[in-house]
Amino acid sequence: MNILCAIVIINVLNYVQASDLAKNWGIVGTPLGSAYPCKGNDVVLAQFEAGLSPEEENKYSLYIGEQFPTHSRIIIKFDSEATVTLVNDKVARIRNVAADLVVFISFFKPGSSLSLIIKGPQTGTVPYPTSIDVNSVEYCKQPAPGFLDSVIEGYKGTAHVAPSVPSGSCGRRKVVHTELIVNGQPTKPGDWPWHGAIYRLEQSSVRYICGGTLLSKTFVLTAAHCVTISGNPVLPEILSIIFGKYHLIGGDIATQEREIQQIIVHEEFNASRLNNDIALMKMKTEVSYDDYVQPACLWHANAYKKLPVGSIMGTVVGWGFNHNDQLASTLHQVVLPKILENHCIKSNTAFFGLLLNNRKFCAGYRNGTSACNGDSGGAYQVFVPDVTGDSSANATGSWHVRGIVSLAMSRPNEPICDNRQYSLFTDVSAFVGWIKTYVKTDN
Q1: Which pTM was predicted?
Q2: What share of the chain is helix, strand, coil (3-state, %, to 5)?
Q3: What would the pLDDT profile of 197-230 be if each residue is shown by its tens digit?
Q4: Is residue 299 within 8 Å of 305, Cβ to Cβ?
Q5: How far apart are CA 414 and CA 427, in angstroms?
Q6: Which of 104, 122, 322, 398 gives 171 a disulfide partner, CB atoms 3.0 to 4.6 angstroms apart?
Q7: In sequence order, what are the residues at sequence separation of 6 or more whose Cβ sits closer than 8 angstroms to the Cβ of residue 277?
């Protein structure tokens, strides 16, 4: 009996202590935000909550602060699929009309305002109004889409902590040129000393297949689809890689070729959708660092803090298909912006809505400039300046591997990339922990 009483008292004490701790918590609530979805019109207001579940975070309220007499009519057009719900259906009714992405609201009683709940589809896209016609008056002459994009977080089940800067001298060129190269133009020898050309033995010939990025004297980072067949790793002895290479066929004077000892494919690689499209190759012998062979830096969590304000720009290099649909004879580069997931999916919902997830990201242009066949496995590399925010032409800094060229849409009935669509990249930031279980950087 005494033992039982003691247990009860201890449990009560524990509860009291926990309650006391809870009383010391700071106030926790859902962060609220607001925005004007139509420039120059503060009568139309959007309100949203941050921190919602991934299924609900592409939802917001749309408010029009006007007096609406009986028989008022509002026509709203959106830029993508939306479910629109009336907050007060006692004074008005809503229906869709024959036109795409348009809803029609009519008041059968006077209303003091109009409140709607806007919800996007399960793909996660956010529908934004492009036109709001109130009794034949346009209330949204200058739409301002994108106000909710920064709130979208999606599923995030992994966090990575890292030192504020990587050690050593990774990601720095040893050969310095005086001028920069513009998009899609040839590079110069020594510009990308961590980029390697992967070759595969096929019957009696050796064929270039993909790019790879040097992370240490023994390890190379590439795409899993480059080193597998039907999802299974190929024999390492049929692969080789050459660093310090500029010409795809001959003509180089400072190359280092290495055979492959081991292929490590991510255990969750899915060949059909190219999920977790990442692999490591361990070389049989170490490379020697010189002017034309150097390691790249692996992306780290604090790199964002040093980047200039604005869109993230990454560079992709390779011997991929050029404007003539042929492999380039010399190493080329292209600078591509990282694209918000919402914008990417809206550009082609059938393709990107199916394949884009939280371990991939979208980048590129839709103007004919893109990564293409033959660029697979290479890095999407971002320049991180030594001085925070330095965007000057002579800024010093290091190149970090932010992504891996993974997937692009093909042209109709052709096995060649459609360079008027965005490309998908494996998000290296989601795999830093996995990489570091195998790779010890030695730069």
Answers
A1: 0.69
A2: 15, 35, 50
A3: 999 998 888 989 999 999 999 999 999 999 999 9
A4: no
A5: 27
A6: 398
A7: 223, 224, 225, 266, 269, 360, 404, 406, 407, 426
